[in-house]
Amino acid sequence: MVGGQDDQVFDGGSFVLNRHGRPAHVLPVFGECLRHVDFLREEGRWIAAEGEICSHPDAWEQEYRAMVEATRGYLRKSGFEKVVLGLSGGIDSALVATVATDALGAENVHCVMLPSDDTSQGSLDDAGGIARRLGCRYDVVPIAEGRAAIARSLAPLFEGLGADLTEENIQSRLRGLLLMALSNKFGAMLLTTGNKSELAVGYATIYGDMNGGYNPIRDLYKTRVFGQCRWRNAHHRPWMKGPAGEVIPVAVIDKPPSAELRPDQKDEDSLPPYEVLDAILEGLVDREQSVAELVAQGHEREVVKTVEHLIYLSEYKRFQSAPGPRLTPRAFWLDRRYPIVNRWRDPG
Fold first, then answer.
1. What is d(CA 117, CA 18) in angstroms, rounded to the nearest whole number?
2. Cross-referenced SUPFAM superfamilies, in alphabetical order (predicted)?
3. Per-domain boundaries in the chain
4. Which long-range contacts (CB under 8 A, 24 or more apart) does 275-282 make?
5. Do residues 248 and 94 touch, judged by C-beta distance below 8 A?
6. Are 26 and 50 in contact (CB under 8 A)?
7. Dist. CA 75–CA 79, nearest whole Å
8. DSSP code string of 256-310
9. 314-342 burial string, b = 16+ CB within 10 Å, else e?
10. How many CB atoms lie under 10 A from the CB of residue 299?
């Protein structure tokens, strides 16, 4: 089998080995291929006659194609032809829009910008620029009126209480509601756009930006998101249905990540720098290292313990999150399952 099924990506690359691990045939990855293999008897033993040895792409290309093939397969096998997604002007949604376009073609991808009063003009410009470069349908649906209506409805209950994370999450959940309405009305699957770093520490709003039927970058750490955007800008392959060239503006890749749920918000206000966060997450999640081992590698104990705590707290969100392709040794879902509630925790 070749292609995607739920979180699995069947990548092909079948091979035939002779004694001592000598390859006789190596087939290409991610494509269907029929190969005839002759077996010869030499010195009383059967060996495979040597054939074509296909070279495989590097890790960046295979990872990107896995996301494309998984998205294409999931949509086709679930009966959907089109997708809709929220395009914020940030790097995560830009990559998801690009993967979707390469998988389905621009005519089947609907990008929607849902600005609030906290959305910068730069994000509006970037979102529109990404959609134009990809050739996708692009609409702007402001949420200010809906946000104000919800605030008025809740005002009697919230009287005397200051604004906090609640109001930020209302924005995200309102966007999720509108995107799901578009999905229902037009029969397009909603793609969600959270990366593995955010999913690991719960930097995502359940029933908000986590809404969706599939997430192509679910198992992609944030630092890999940056790398994949740069790789896609520099490469184009025949299996991509999207355009060649710089489809994700460099300005989008280089600007500081922000959820833009409050004025001047930056991800690093709440999280360690992504280079640090991802290194800790890879240790705790992918390699199952202890806090002590990561501290011995040079990480600050307080930071590691905080990240570990956030991973535990966010377990319930991951149990309700959209599926996506497995790209790492410990993808959340089948590879790494922890109880949502657990009285005992390792104090180390």
1. 65
2. Adenine nucleotide alpha hydrolases-like (SSF52402)
3. 1-35, 59-259
4. 275/223, 276/303, 277/197, 277/201, 277/222, 277/307, 278/197, 278/221, 278/222, 278/223, 278/224, 280/304, 280/307, 281/196, 281/197, 281/200, 281/201, 281/221, 281/307, 281/311, 282/221
5. yes
6. no
7. 6
8. PP---SSTT--GGGTS--HHHHHHHHIIIIIS---HHHHHHTT--HHHHHHHHHH
9. bbebbeebbbbbbbbebbbbeebeeeeee
10. 18
Whether 142 and 169 have beta carbons less than 8 Å apart is answered as no
Q: Which class for 46: exposed (0-12), middle (13-18), buried (19 or more C-beta within 10 A)? A: exposed
- Contact between 137 and 117 under an 8 Å Cβ cutoff? The reply is no
pTM of the model: 0.92
* Structure-token pair, residue 21: 């691990």
Helices (H), 29-164: 59-77, 91-104, 121-134, 144-158
CATH architecture of the domain 59-259 equals 3-Layer(aba) Sandwich (3.40)
- Return the half-sphere exposure (C-beta side, CA atoms, 13 A cut-off) of residue 101: 26
Tokens 């999207």, residue?
242
Q: Tell me if 257 sits within 8 A of 90, measured CB to CB.
A: yes
The type of residue at 189 is: M
Instruction: Give the three-class secondary structure for 4.
Output: strand
Query: Which pair of tokens denotes residue 308?
Result: 């570990």
Three-class SS state of 206: coil
